[in-house]
Amino acid sequence: MRTFMIHIGQIIELELRSQGRSVSWFAKQLFCDRSNVYKIFKKASIDSDLLIRISTILDKDFFQLYSAEIQEKRLK
User: Fold this and answer.
1) What is the pLDDT of residues 12-61, one digit of tens each?
2) Residue 73 and residue 9: Cα distance in Å, rounded?
3) What does residue 43 show for φ and ψ, rounded to 5 degrees?
4) Would 57 be classed as within a structural domain?
5) How far apart are the C-alpha atoms of 69 and 17, rounded to whole Å?
6) Does residue 3 fall inside a structural domain?
7) Contact call for residues 40 and 9 (beta carbons, < 8 A)
8) Nearest 5 degrees, angle CA 7-CA 3-CA 9?
């Protein structure tokens, strides 16, 4: 059961595009193939260790999205 409405893969892809970075560049930073990057973009959820690496590479704290959603749910 998914409790979060976040589709992290789509958000990562949007951030990568907004930074003007290529999938090839991102794959090199992650030490993986481009095909794996496209798989990440399709993921609704992601391993926390991988998300830490991605957050560091893109210099964006993706964990804040989850924190904000938790806070929002508490207010309901």
Assistant:
1) 999 999 999 999 999 999 999 999 999 999 999 999 999 999 999 999 99
2) 22
3) -80, 130
4) yes
5) 23
6) no
7) yes
8) 15
